[in-house]
Every structure is written in C-alpha cells, then in structure tokens.
Write a structure and sequence with these properties.
The protein has helices at residues 2-7, 13-51, 58-63, 147-155, 169-172; strands spanning 54-56, 72-78, 84-86, 89-95, 99-106, 118-125, 131-138, 178-180. By secondary structure, it is α/β, with parallel strands linked by helices. It folds into two domains: 2-51; 54-180, Nucleic acid-binding proteins (OB fold (Dihydrolipoamide Acetyltransferase, E2P)), CATH 2.40.50. Helix 3 links the parallel strand 1 and strand 2. Residues 172-178 have low confidence and may be disordered.
Length: 182
C-alpha cells in the first residue's frame, strides 16, 4: 500500500504542493485578466475624453478661456447686423446677451441661419480671441431653442423659465454686450 501511495504522489506535501500550484496559476490568470481589463478601461476613457465636445456660451468663454485649442461648441444667438458674407466665407457674432464672440466660417451656412436666431457652431478659438467654426447648426423653427442656449440665456439673466418662453432674439439681441475677439 505504501508503494501505491508513493506512485500517486503521496498524501503529504506532494498533494498540497500540486493544489498550491493550481491556486497560484489561477491567481496569476486572474491578475492578468484584471490588468488587461484595467488597461482597456484606461484606453477607452482616454479616447472618450479626447472626443468630448463641450458646449460653451460667450460668457463662459470670457470667464474661462478655452485651454490648448480643443474643439468645443459655441452657442448663442446670431447678433443682429453682424453677418457678413464674402463668397464662401462668412463672419458673424454670437451673443448670449452679456458677451459676444466673433465667428468665422468657411462653407455654406444652413438655410435657417439668420440674424437673431439660435446657432451652435463647432470649432476652436483663434489666437486673436475669435472663433473659427468648422460646422454651423441653426435652429429648425421659430419655437425651438437648443437646451444649451436656453441654459446660457438663464445664466446670463436674459430669461427666467418661470416667466414663460424664452424671449425672442430680436428683443434682447439689440443690447450692446461686451465684445470679445475681432
């Protein structure tokens, strides 16, 4: 009987060593899986952060200028009398009633784009303080206003939701906000 026990690896340390080896291998596999999952999560979060596009109003930009040339969405209303079209280029100013940002855009403006209407422009700040838009979106009817623009109007003190619908752009867009950029 002792010979049979010896051939099977014994009942003492030999069996315990085999079980410990399996536990160690499982632990190594679990640690490697955890490390791989952590690395994949870190990569996904980094890529997600780089692709986030934030919405900012002219007042937000004045309060905290855009860092490192990252793209963001500028939203507000197109200031009355500010639109200048020169071929494929367009210049206009976006305001939230408190501040104004000069915008340049090369391309075809949307059909609903006009002075006094809500607009969201995607792009980057230029070194001179103006905004270079790569995409311009206009609101789609006379009653719609993007939620971000509504929030900017509330923060600038030009609209209180408890007093009804947002004010028409033509009513407060004639104010003289502080200008930023050329």
């Amino acid at each position: 009987m002792s010979g049979a026990v010896a051939r099977r690896g014994g009942t003492g340390r030999g069996g315990a060593g085999l079980a410990a080896g399996r536990r160690r291998r499982r632990l190594q596999v679990l640690l490697l899986c955890g490390l791989g999952l952590g690395a994949a999560t870190a990569l996904a979060l980094t890529a997600f952060r780089d692709n986030l596009v934030f919405f900012r109003s002219p007042s937000d930009i004045v309060a905290l200028p855009s860092p490192d040339g990252r793209a963001f969405r500028l939203g507000g209303l197109v200031e009355a009398g500010s639109v200048v079209r020169e071929g494929a280029d367009a210049r206009f100013r976006v305001t939230d009633g408190a501040h104004t940002i000069a915008v340049t855009y090369r391309g075809v403006l949307p059909d609903l784009f006009r002075e006094g209407q809500g607009v969201v422009a995607m792009g980057r700040m230029r070194p001179d303080g103006g905004f270079a838009a790569s995409e311009v979106l206009a609101r789609h009817d006379e009653t719609y206003m993007p939620p971000e623009v509504k929030d900017a109007l509330e923060r600038a003190g030009h609209w209180n939701p408890e007093q009804g619908a947002p004010p028409p752009a033509s009513g407060w867009n004639t104010m003289r906000p502080a200008q930023v950029g050329g």
